[in-house]
């Protein structure tokens, strides 16, 4: 195990210390420039593509459902705990660098999701399927590389990250469940057997979450989309509302907090809101937190983007939708966490960080109700991440030819990992997931850069039609150079 851990740590150091920390930013800047700063120039188009009704198609889900499923995966416990850690280690300037990563990441998200739409096909169940594995296999003609990508995605998003999310839920709810188990005489009182009672409570939570997850994921992606469409807007809306209330209650301090974030990012102001951090610490922690949170370039969200029926009927439409997902995740939700912490009279420290820091901040704003709210938010953020992550892995299973049997096996494995993750310390296996995600992200970044000419061609087609007042409708026959690998029936 020591040798295995050493190899995993080396891989993570390579991926996250060198390749991805610079690669994701470089690719984001590349697409920002090549596509004419599309995330800024056409920001309104993102909202139009989400709200357009379009033509219904039973083979896919709606643009809004695709957005909410991707947000279900993106908006997880990292938006609560991860932002607090970034503030503790990097200071308020880390938030500025999170913003910068998100703004360039929107262009990357646009590119990968546009490709996912373009190269989608009908799966064995008739539903649209696709994602990075599809454009790697058919766009680049590298099915072997697509298979490696799919395996890495299943291991990280399908299995291990779901164990981590279940662990977050169990950690947040274990104490009250333990008290109930003792009260009902189901476990021994805490008289030297505290660990046993605590673990029993976490196992109960894991089983409950697994059963609830199973009810949803056994309904397939359409069922996941319906749940996400209902839960995610409420979940994110209430969280943003809490941040707005905190802003209003402390409105006189807001200008100082915002200016402090910017100044601290460049070392012009060392402290603000009780947090301190150097320029390098602010940049590195903000960039890493931003990359982990919005997932732009990771190759995850394109898996659900491919399942959508776009409105208008054009690959770029889903590119705009998923670019908006990056904006909502980081610029809105992560910023909400940061602002609530910075406006609170709490002092980040080695002891008070992560979820505890966010709970303390909301406790300062809203009293005991605030701490309860954080616990509830953790449950919904983590639970929706489980079902969102599963939807990505299901696409990968279909690409590998798993069929109905493979999908059922994946669903059972996800439920088992939820129970296991709730009761175990998942540090080592989480490191393995980071390495696996680093591999898939590296493969995906190479693929979308090699296919960037296709992205540019499709984007020009969309924008040219919008410019003359025409509803964008993509016809592959107009672009024979990119026809190989594209399903002509879908885009005829």
Automatic annotation (TrEMBL):
<keyword id="KW-0813">Transport</keyword>
<feature type="transmembrane region" description="Helical">
    <location>
        <begin position="71"/>
        <end position="90"/>
    </location>
</feature>
<keyword id="KW-0769">Symport</keyword>
<feature type="transmembrane region" description="Helical">
    <location>
        <begin position="405"/>
        <end position="423"/>
    </location>
</feature>
<feature type="transmembrane region" description="Helical">
    <location>
        <begin position="195"/>
        <end position="218"/>
    </location>
</feature>
<dbReference type="Pfam" id="PF01235">
    <property type="entry name" value="Na_Ala_symp"/>
</dbReference>
<keyword id="KW-0812">Transmembrane</keyword>
<feature type="transmembrane region" description="Helical">
    <location>
        <begin position="140"/>
        <end position="161"/>
    </location>
</feature>
<dbReference type="GO" id="GO:0005886">
    <property type="term" value="C:plasma membrane"/>
</dbReference>
<comment type="similarity">
    <text>Belongs to the alanine or glycine:cation symporter (AGCS) (TC 2.A.25) family.</text>
</comment>
<keyword id="KW-1003">Cell membrane</keyword>
<dbReference type="GO" id="GO:0005283">
    <property type="term" value="F:amino acid:sodium symporter activity"/>
</dbReference>
<keyword id="KW-0472">Membrane</keyword>
<feature type="transmembrane region" description="Helical">
    <location>
        <begin position="323"/>
        <end position="344"/>
    </location>
</feature>
<feature type="transmembrane region" description="Helical">
    <location>
        <begin position="435"/>
        <end position="458"/>
    </location>
</feature>
<feature type="transmembrane region" description="Helical">
    <location>
        <begin position="372"/>
        <end position="393"/>
    </location>
</feature>
<dbReference type="InterPro" id="IPR001463">
    <property type="entry name" value="Na/Ala_symport"/>
</dbReference>
<feature type="transmembrane region" description="Helical">
    <location>
        <begin position="230"/>
        <end position="251"/>
    </location>
</feature>
<keyword id="KW-1133">Transmembrane helix</keyword>
<feature type="transmembrane region" description="Helical">
    <location>
        <begin position="15"/>
        <end position="37"/>
    </location>
</feature>
<protein>
    <submittedName>
        <fullName>Alanine or glycine:cation symporter, AGCS family</fullName>
    </submittedName>
</protein>
<keyword id="KW-0997">Cell inner membrane</keyword>
């Amino acid at each position: 195990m020591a040798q295995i851990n050493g190899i995993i740590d080396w891989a993570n150091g390579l991926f996250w210390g060198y390749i991805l920390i610079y690669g994701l930013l470089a690719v984001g800047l590349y697409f920002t420039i090549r596509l004419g700063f599309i995330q800024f120039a056409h920001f309104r188009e993102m909202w139009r593509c989400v709200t357009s009704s379009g033509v219904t198609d039973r083979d896919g889900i709606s643009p809004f459902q695709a957005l909410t499923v991707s947000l279900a995966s993106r908006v997880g416990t990292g938006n609560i705990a991860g932002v607090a850690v970034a503030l503790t280690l990097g200071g308020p300037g880390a938030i500025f660098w999170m913003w910068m990563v998100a703004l360039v990441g929107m262009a990357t998200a646009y590119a990968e999701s546009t490709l996912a739409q373009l190269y989608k096909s009908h799966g064995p169940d008739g539903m649209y399927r696709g994602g990075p594995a599809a454009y790697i296999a058919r766009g680049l003609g590298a099915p072997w590389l697509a298979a490696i990508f799919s395996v890495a995605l299943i291991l990280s998003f399908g299995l291990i990250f779901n164990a981590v999310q279940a662990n977050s839920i169990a950690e947040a709810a274990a104490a009250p469940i333990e008290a109930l188990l003792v009260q009902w005489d189901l476990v021994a009182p805490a008289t030297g057997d505290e660990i046993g009672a605590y673990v029993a409570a976490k196992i109960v939570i894991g089983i409950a979450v697994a059963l609830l997850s199973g009810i949803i994921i056994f309904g397939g992606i359409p069922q996941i989309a319906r749940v996400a469409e209902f839960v995610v807007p409420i979940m994110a809306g209430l969280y943003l509302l809490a941040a707005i209330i905190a802003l209003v209650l402390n409105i006189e301090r807001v200008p100082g907090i915002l200016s402090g974030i910017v100044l601290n990012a460049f070392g012009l102001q060392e402290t603000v809101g009780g947090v301190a951090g150097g320029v390098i610490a602010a940049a590195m922690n903000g960039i890493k937190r931003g990359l982990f949170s919005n997932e732009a370039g990771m190759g995850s969200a394109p898996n659900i983007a491919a399942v959508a029926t776009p409105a208008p009927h054009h690959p770029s439409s889903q590119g705009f939708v998923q670019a908006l997902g990056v904006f909502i995740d980081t610029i809105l939700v992560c910023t909400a966490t940061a602002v609530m912490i910075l406006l609170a009279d709490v002092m980040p420290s080695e002891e008070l960080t992560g979820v505890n820091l966010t709970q303390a901040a909301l406790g300062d704003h809203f009293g005991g109700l605030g701490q309860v709210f954080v616990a509830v938010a953790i449950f919904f953020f983590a639970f929706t991440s489980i079902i969102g992550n599963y939807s990505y892995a299901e696409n990968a299973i279909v690409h590998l030819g798993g069929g109905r049997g493979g999908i059922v096996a994946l669903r059972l494995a996800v439920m088992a990992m939820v129970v296991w993750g709730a009761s175990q310390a998942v540090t080592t296996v989480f490191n393995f997931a980071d390495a696996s995600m680093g591999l898939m992200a590296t493969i995906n970044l190479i693929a979308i850069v090699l296919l960037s000419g296709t992205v540019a061609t499709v984007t020009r087609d969309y924008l040219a039609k919008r410019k003359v007042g025409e509803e964008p409708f993509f016809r592959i026959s107009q672009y024979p150079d990119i026809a190989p690998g594209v399903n002509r029936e879908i885009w005829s």
